[in-house]
Amino acid sequence: MQVLAPAKVNLSLRILNRRDDGFHEIETFIAPISLYDKIDIEKQNRWIDFSCDDVDLPTGDDNLVVRAAKLFFDRTKSHGGVLIKLEKKIPHGAGLGGGSSDAASTLIGLNELFETNLPREALAKMAEQIGSDVPFFIFGSAAMCRGRGELVSPEPLKERLSILLLKPAFGVPTPWAYSRWRSSREDDAQEFGGRNFVNDLERPVFEKFVFLAQMKTWLRSQPEVGAALMSGSGSTMFAVMRPNVDVDLVMKRAKSELDPGLWTCACETR
Hints:
Elements lengths: L1 E17 L5 E21 L3 E5 L11 H13 L4 E7 L10 H16 L6 H8 L6 H5 L4 E4 L4 E4 L7 E6 L6 H6 L10 E3 L2 E5 L2 H7 L1 H11 L4 E6 L6 E5 L5 H11 L5 E6 L2
Parallel strand pairs: 1-9, 3-4
Antiparallel strand pairs: 1-2, 2-4, 2-5, 5-6, 7-11, 7-12, 8-9, 10-11
């Protein structure tokens, strides 16, 4: 069977405080988007065999897909093994949640393949042990996420948003970005379509990665763009496009005026 693992963008991200357990208390509104990794899962007699077409990703126990599969078999006491092949389309170090989505989608796929019939809530509880934003991807909907990200309240968007993603060649490690947050909230909120777009991690990330700040300023100056924001901890910047505009034209303009090596993707919220 094949499972599609969607990327995400944080339409808002507020950091409330640093917790005693080392994590941060957050409030973030996240939307899945139409950019997907593909995961093929087949039953086999024994073992978990995992492979990926991206040679830069680990394929051992450190990979979130492998961790998800091991956790599934341990918790459900299912017998047998699986052959898992991951085709990556979502860049890593991008703030798009690719690894977390892969892990969640693996749990969903195994639940169906082995007919364990666990409800979404049970899968989400299992997903908490893999990563803070893994539970979000279990529900397949835009959602407000609280706590360290694991408390998920689905809130489907009333309409789809057209999104342009821009990512430079470098990534931003999520732990590093959170470690640089200094108890200050970002005041540069943008209002578009009745929603506020703000990310409290932009300030500390922009202090080191100045090019990302330049990208955001450039995006906001484009007449086709309604709002521009860094997704999660970066390094992807995304633009929410105004209705009936040529996204490809903005994409080409970005490569011409910012960096010809930019990774770009036109997509929409799910």
